[in-house]
Amino acid sequence: MKIDGTDIADCWALTPADHVLVMAKSGANRVDFALLLLFYRAHGRFPNEPEEIEPGAVGKVVQQLGMADVSHDGLNTAARTWKRYRAEIRAMFGYREATVADAEMLSEWLRDQAAVAGGASEHLDALLNARCRELLIEPPSNDRSDRIVRAAMYAHDERFCATILGRLTPTMRARLEALLRPAGSKDDEGPEVKEAPGTAPALLLQLRGDPGQPSLASVQDQLAKLELIRRLELPADLFGHTLPHELECYRQRVAVEAPYELRRHPEATRLTWLAAFAHLRGRTLIDDLVDLLIETIHHIGARAERKVDRELLDDIKRVTGKQNLLFEIADATLGKPDGIVREVVFPVVSEETLRDLVKEWKATGPTYRTTLRTMIRNSYKGHYRRMVPQVLHVLNFRSNNERHRPTIQALDLMKRYAGTKVHTFPVEEEVPLDGVVRGLWREAVIEKDAQGRQRVNRITYEICVLEALREQLRCKEIWVAGANRYRNPDEDLPADF
Questions:
Q1: For site-directed labelling of 310, which of 276, 325, 370, 449 has its Cα 20 to 30 A away?
Q2: Mean pLDDT confidence for 423-440
Q3: Sign of CA dihedral 182, 188, 194, 195
Q4: pTM for the complete prediction?
Q5: CA distances (Å), 105 to each of 102, 110, 113, 151, 475, in order?
């Protein structure tokens, strides 16, 4: 560990000039003076407690002074001597004690630093000590430093909330205030009272809570919450230069306080907290919607697989030793190539075994895949398809990679035809297939009309698009505007990367 480039172990080494100063003191106080001098040189301040001095430092200083026969039990300097030594050491290094004016100046300086470096008290305390050393001011005591830091944080919060309030229009302020009241209620000037049991909950409470299990109901619930957030119409760059952990602190205050408690705060503070909560909650809701969409797409396929497996399980009888059966059939057939199947093959492999082989092949081969596709299509068409237009309407999917542009184009195509009832896309419509439709689905997507022209089945194509979207969202090849976890991957890199 180093302090100002100097190893801690070397901080307790006396220079020749230090030795002269120390030896000018009386024998009983030489060790105390030397310890104060060396500690001040290393830390820019005096120790608040004797325990701050390293245990081995006393022995090292005593050894350098040649006072091995003198016992030392700690800093036992008398008050007057202690004060005189402190003043002498300060003068030697050019430092001075902090005044009331210095405290106000440092508090204002810290307030400006909090806007850039954040309002963490530990970080501000380190900045305060560094600033004191730059100005050759002895850092205040711990209690006084805490007061300066708290005053700076409070001033920073006040100025920040006033700035945010100034950017909110009267309409935005009224909509934010409405979050603290039940839906449909009117504002009044009466005294603030706690909500009585049985009354309608405030709109703010509707924004809390997790989305739950993936389902059509949970998707619609999240869409309603996101619509409530977007109706606030907050500026997109309202918190553009605010550090994330500061916004998170404001969000947590709103998340744990009851609406009647939030109404007691000053207007600037209350509205800033609500705006920060709405800003972060909107990003979280978009993440939740993407999660629900990904899980729902997976759920459709997994549920269809389980259902098909259950339906075919009774018809499937796994036949073991299929290779041996093949060799036996081949040997019997070659032995009597002109014979009758019932007389040549069945004695080697029974008719029942051959029937089981055919059923197994149908259950695991093309027939199984066709049945599975049909099951997925019916499940999507009959239930899950109702939520797709709503989700696509509120989410803005983007990609930075030209390779994945076909999926983005396919999503735009789905949006354009969301309100129509066409069975297949028009012939003149350009429908992206490569990179969207997998090989197993291509034969089900493309069909022929009465004129023999190839047409793209709309419902089956939508399933393929959603499956491609799921895979590319999971690896961030496609991202969502306004999201947090699914945000633009370029934002994950440092600005100077």
A1: 325
A2: 86
A3: negative
A4: 0.69
A5: 5, 9, 12, 11, 50
